């Protein structure tokens, strides 16, 4: 199993990666900067900014814990305080893990870290792990699909290996269940086209970064 740690650089609070091509914004940085935040802002107004920040921080901490548990599970380590059991069960069922928390970049001007590249049902698949406080539907996680497509493009560019599928795994804390959203090659191609448009939007907002 391959691992490769990203080196982060912050420009005006936005996370970038120090890559072999230069200092590039991360995929999540690009998507966050170009997202329609109407729904998020409306939610903050409803619950209050202090409560919204508390919930966001708690969610980030839980997400970090889950990612650490996943990596430990893949490495065969004993987890004393296991969370998201259905997700860990799926992780243990993976046929072969090729890479985990693997830093990637692309000369088009972006970088990131692949959560997991593994063989699922005999097919090499880019997997992204997510957590949520409630159940999700596909229309709510469009940016997750763009994220997977961007990581796939990076991996294929560097290793010249065809990655034929993607998978977004969302652990839903509300009912302790794992939701799986698979992506076909056509889905990945459509998401890659959409991500490229967002990438262009980002560099129109921050032209000095490229």
Describe the structure.
The protein is an alpha+beta fold. The chain has a single domain, classed as 3-Layer(aba) Sandwich (Trna Endonuclease, Chain: A, domain 1), CATH 3.40.1350. Helices cover 43% and strands 30% of the residues. The protein is built from 6 helices and 9 strands. The strands form 2 sheets. The chain has a 6-stranded mixed sheet with strand order 1-5-6-7-8-9, sandwiched between helices. It is globular, with a radius of gyration of 17 Å.
Short summary:
The protein has 210 residues and is an alpha+beta fold.
Number of separate helices:
6
The overall pLDDT, averaged over residues, is 89
Strand content: 25-35%
Gyration radius from CA atoms, angstroms: 17 Å
Major β-sheet profile: 6 strands, mixed
How does the helix and strand content classify structurally?
Answer: alpha+beta
Q: According to CATH, what is the topology? A: Trna Endonuclease, Chain: A, domain 1
Which oligomeric form is depicted?
single chain
Question: Low-confidence segments, ≥5 residues, pLDDT <50?
Answer: none
Count of individual beta strands: 9
Helix percentage:
40-55%
Looking across the biggest beta sheet, what order are the strands in?
1-5-6-7-8-9
Question: For this structure, what is the CATH class?
Answer: Alpha Beta
**Which architecture does the CATH hierarchy give at level 2?**
3-Layer(aba) Sandwich
User: Could you give the distance between the termini?
Assistant: 32 Å
Number of separate structural domains? 1
The string of secondary-structure elements, in order, is: EEEEHHHHEEEHEEH
Q: Choose one word for the global shape.
A: globular
